[in-house]
Amino acid sequence: MKKIDYAQTFLERTLNLFRCPSCQAEVVTVANHTLTCVNGHTFDLSKKGTLYLFMKPAGTEYDGDMLAARRRMLQRGLFDGIVQAMVQAIPETAKTLLDVGCGEGTPLAKLVNLSPQLSSAIGFDISKPGIALASDYQERLFFCVADLANEPFATGQFDVVTDLFSPSAYQEFERVLTQSGTLIKVIPNANYLGELRRLLFGSDDPHHDYSNQRVLDLFLSHYPDADVRQVAYTFPLQPGWFDDLLTMTPLHWGTNADPTGAKSRGLSQITVDVTVLVARPNA
């Protein structure tokens, strides 16, 4: 089945998950590869089976090379420990999932593959190149370009919202979640990719160290009863993988970064160190 036909089939059975990003009204039909709301606004599926639901021009610094390198590293297993922790937090009764800032889609695809109870999962991102890549994954999955602050999804329809390293819009998360819905947010800790950070920046550079305490504190101010779990492991780097690791992260964009020096030294392993936050905002 062509991607565009698969996407139409997905939408036909999940129209209740969407709302119009233009007028916030109910979406009522999908026919001839076009989504239509009750007020007549239309949105056409791309040939790759994705929807553009952003109501203003969207820009991102994540280019094709960066996304392709990220995909290769994630397919090799860099985030598998994170995905496993997220899977453990998904209730056995969950059927619908929304992934915020899904990027090129590999973490969501792996998560859904390990969560047979999920019948439908939607990933969205601001990056059109990322969503185009994500369309390679189809099983129980759909991808679209959308706005975090104006999510084109219906109220109270998602059992789970996941947020892996993306910004948050807690009011929107609470709106789209069911009454008993679960929010899973993953934030990087101080030693996340620490070996790479120390290769790129000298000890006197502010980027040499890192803290996400402010993001953690904000989450806990919203959901003080949240479950907090640290996930940390080292991931071995085979020959030739370091260039992809360097390319997939914005760390090398830093003004004082030394990517040439980092490449000459390389790494044999890298640390993944994150905090997984789980809350039930509407319970």
From TrEMBL:
Identify the taxonomic lineage of the organism of origin.
Answer: Bacteria, Bacillati, Bacillota, Bacilli, Lactobacillales
Q: Is Disulfide bond among this UniProt entry's keywords? A: no
Q: Which residues bind Zn(2+)?
A: C37, H41
**A Pfam family this chain is assigned to:** Methyltransf_31
Keyword terms: Metal-binding, Methyltransferase, S-adenosyl-L-methionine, Transferase, Zinc
Residues that bind S-adenosyl-L-methionine, according to the entry?
Answer: F79, E104, G105, Y192
Q: Which domain of life is it from?
A: Bacteria
- All copies of the Methyltransferase domain together span 94-185
Molecular function in Gene Ontology: metal ion binding; methyltransferase activity
For this chain's UniProt record, which GO biological process terms are given?
A: methylation
Its name, as the record gives it, is 23S rRNA methyltransferase
